[in-house]
Amino acid sequence: MKTFRKFSFISIITISMFFSLGLLAPETEEGMYPLSEIHNVDLVRAGLKISPKDIYDPNGISLVDALVNVGGCTGSFVSPDGLIITNHHCAFGAINRASSTDNNYLEDGFLAETRSQEISATGYKCKITESYEDVSKIILDAVKGIDDLAERTKAISKKINELNDKYTDSDNSIEARVSEMFAGQTYVLFKYRIIEDVRLVYAPPRAIGEFGGESDNWVWPRHTGDFTFMRAYVAPDGSSAKYSKENVPFKPKKFLKVNPNGVEENDFVFVLGYPGRTFRHQPSQYLEYQQEYLLPYVSELYEWTIKLIEDISSVDEAMQLKYASTIKGYANTMKNYQGKLKGLRKIQLIQKKRDEEQLLKDFIKAKPELKNKYGKLFVDIDNVYSELFDIAEADLWFQRFPRVSNLMNISSFIIENAKEKEKPNLERKSMYMESNLDATKQRIERTFDFLNSEIELNVWAKMFDDAYGFENTSRIRTIDSLIKNEDDDPYVDVEAMLNSTNLYDKSFFNELTAKPYKELKKVDDDLFQLIISLYEEELTINKKRDAIEGALGKLLPQLAEVKRMWNQKSFIPDANGTLRLTYGYVKGYAPADAVYYTPITTLDGVIEKSYMGGDYSLPDKMYDLYEAKDFGKFYNKKIGGVPVALLYNMDTTGGNSGSPILNAYGEIVGVNFDRAYEATINDFAWNESYSRSIGVDIRYILWITQKYGGADYLLSEMGVNL
Ligand code: ASP
């Protein structure tokens, strides 16, 4: 097996110079530091008791080698036999898929008593970061001389696809992915080792793993046991392989040491993980777009969809189980977006950004050489955004329709796939490239299980209704053209199309997937033809969006340049799904007038909340253990109970779910799973006063696993003495 520890020293230096200007201050501050930056943060002064090299060593084995990206979340190896700890909500889809009304692992929890009982987490894979390399020059050379903005966007994505393809080595299970670090400026090629066989080992019941449900989601004080154990498997020769009985547990290069004693208030802690996306280097107009369009539209749409599915499934237990993950996903996004909307208004972030931009404008104006170069920068950004605002309603409608309608999702795949096939492989959207197409198709095929005509009829009626309200610049002509006379209700036609379509039929899907685009246009199915017409309209919107992105790809680097000259500060790239470190302290906060929250909750709080029932109901066994004071070694005298959840002032976002919380010695003391409500705004602006992340305490994890789950063997496997 080849390994990819081939680092270009020059690359590391370039990235570093770009991000920083000297050693960063030890106080807690904004920062999801990429690997290239870890050596620039004075972690020892901040409280680290090991060498930063123990965290990340490009030429040896270090803590980052114990990290995995699992199912879009983070996880970490905690035993030499590939045992992974992550969140319950990260494994939720796998637990849900493995459950039936007779064997309801979501409800009852799941424990594999032996390795042979571990069940496949279908659809999950693990990615381990093997190496990275700065490829900015290669990418930017590819757009030299291209003035057309939409073409520029295309050229960048083509070059990215080319590198991804060139360095992906399926034989050795290596997947290459170029990530944009700073828009239009820096690009880094990451190589990931892929593991395709992931299994469920232990998941507590939902009443523990999701204790507090949506009522407590994005909320502190928290009492959720949001953890699950999984295991990575590979073929006997160590190569990656799909699920097979012959596979053997993966032997990670590094696994984390579990510290069953946990941490205390004010202790130094850090998190390694794969944060998804943040948007801190965007201009004020981006926030306006969020506040006026994206956040209200999506949160309302998801709220409506949740209610619809809940109503339709109210007396159907099997249906409730089937849609559990879907609803959870919508609810999580909805509450996050509502939190962001509240936060944007509360801290008046848009105005703050505008004020900062005014200072930048003054700075530019004061220096002739800057005025020459950047004099039009802000006007240009404004113009680009006004183009985006014009199409925002339609654009969001097209983007979100397939997320709430499986019928639309399936049809979009058929049509887009046919259209993309007309292009050379490297110019296609990544999901339609030859190397990814099978996986995409399998994902789409799984959605057939979720096709439900009652849901579809209602969703389509809502989407059409929404579209009638759009502004002139965002009209959807395909829908308008259904209205022949003023009092026509075009939805009547659509309802008839929905009732007569063959798109619910999988064999029809297979038949259509084999057809070229021009044949698809002849298929005798009214609904399908309507969707084709919508698709063609969407293409024109996409073209505008590509041009907008292309323009921003040129303007945002200039904005970053000016900012850097103005405040002489180092910048850390926004989160983009790549491996990062953040650090801070176990610390309470004051989210509102006259309110202060301490940072560690206990089992007493779980029991107290449980008296409210509903989202807080607990299995009887929890009361038995509590009343018997059967706390094992996990009772903490100083805290006065079994610690359950931790609060800390770090910089995390979605994707950091499941990240290990590490103490000053690099030992795991908890698992990150959420943020406080006020910290949903983190994604736009981090601030020590309100940015708090939430994790489940290792002592609760071990207590539940041992006492509730009866899985002593897992504690032994992790080297925890009982
Ligand atoms: N609970 C969050 C999520 O699932 C994690 C976070 O965003 O902090 O997205």
Task: Explain the overall architecture.
It is a single chain. The chain is α+β, with helices and mostly antiparallel strands and 722 residues long. The chain has 27 helices and 19 strands. The longest helix is centred in the C-terminal third of the chain and has 42 residues, at 526-567. Aspartic acid is lined by residues 332, 652-654, 656-657, 673-675.
Structural descriptors:
single chain; 722 residues; alpha+beta; Thrombin, subunit H; 2 domains; 11-stranded antiparallel sheet; 8-stranded antiparallel sheet; 27 helices; 45% helix; disordered N terminus; binds aspartic acid
SSE topology:
Blueprint: H1 9-19, E1 33-34, H2 43-46, H3 52-55, E2 67-70, E3 73-77, E4 83-86, H4 88-98, H5 105-108, E5 110-111, E6 119-120, E7 126-134, H6 136-141, H7 149-167, E8 174-182, E9 186-195, E10 197-203, H8 206-209, H9 213-216, E11 228-234, E12 248-249, E13 268-273, H10 284-312, H11 317-322, H12 324-346, H13 349-366, H14 368-374, H15 377-404, H16 406-421, H17 434-446, H18 453-468, H19 477-480, H20 491-500, H21 506-513, H22 517-520, H23 526-567, E14 580-585, E15 600-602, H24 603-610, H25 620-627, E16 643-648, E17 660-662, E18 668-675, E19 693-697, H26 698-708, H27 712-717
Antiparallel strand pairs: 1-14, 2-3, 2-7, 3-4, 4-11, 5-10, 6-10, 7-9, 8-9, 10-11, 11-12, 13-14, 13-17, 15-16, 16-19, 17-18, 18-19
The structure holds aspartic acid (ASP).
